[in-house]
Specification:
Elements lengths: L5 E3 L8 H9 L10 E5 L4 H6 L4 E4 L4 H13 L8 E5 L3 H11 L5 E5 L2 H11 L3 E4 L8 H9 L9 E5 L5 H7 L5 E4 L5 H12 L9
Parallel strand pairs: 1-2, 2-3, 4-5, 4-6, 6-7, 7-8
Helix pairs in contact: 5-6
């Protein structure tokens, strides 16, 4: 019988949970597409997400919190079509986290380490989605959005903002409804991020921006 989900502790005898998670998620594994929720005293969210966990919860965990996490994990479905996502961020750690989080949701992940390269790649590659940081030197995320939305060739590409910047009223005015959502890096949840990504990649869906 094939399980729908794996709930995993890190502190296990013999092989620890991180090693088991890595083995489950490796290419070719029969269970590689199964969502894994880490529930452990050792709750390293960044490591868990990089290894492919849907969510990492710190023990002790309340019943409602656990049930909600399991329901979100079970609701995840593989992307129904070929998809290309462009990540524009100058922070290597964020790029690593976002790339790992996108595994299974996007068939191709393109990387741009600055705004100029991001605009060039978006125009050339025509991605299905742009995941964009706002705080970048020289050409900021705001500049990238303005360039994309004023170019007919890229104006319809949905954008998800993932940033550590506190979004002010003025920032929202600058974004002017051109971003589907804004994700706070300090409170990053792979589950919620993937929900946003899959919504953006779903064909024919009304992608209402903030």
């Amino acid at each position: 019988m094939q399980p729908r989900l794996i709930v995993l502790d890190v502190l296990l005898p013999g092989m620890d949970g991180w090693a088991l998670l890595s083995r489950v998620k490796q290419a070719g594994s029969a269970w590689s597409d199964l969502p894994v929720v880490i529930v452990s005293i050792v709750a390293d969210a960044r490591k868990g997400m990089l290894l492919g966990a849907a969510q990492v919860l710190q023990k002790p965990v309340g019943r409602d919190e656990l049930v909600a996490a399991l329901e979100r994990a079970c609701a995840h479905k593989p992307s129904p079509r070929e998809s290309k996502v462009l990540v524009v961020d100058d922070d290597p750690h964020s790029v690593e986290l976002l790339t790992a989080s996108l595994a299974g949701a996007a068939t191709t992940v393109l990387l741009a380490k600055d705004g100029v390269h991001g605009i060039e790649l978006a125009r050339r590659e025509q991605p299905d989605l742009v995941v964009l940081d706002l705080l970048m030197p020289e050409v900021s995320g705001f500049d990238v959005i303005e360039a994309l939305k004023t170019d007919a060739a890229t104006a319809s590409i949905p954008v998800i903002i993932v940033t550590s910047k506190d979004i002010t009223h003025e920032d929202r005015q600058r974004l002017d409804g051109h971003a589907m959502t804004v994700v706070d890096k300090s409170a990053f949840s792979r589950d919620r991020f993937l929900d946003d990504v899959r919504r953006a990649l779903r064909p024919g869906l009304n992608k209402e921006a903030l």
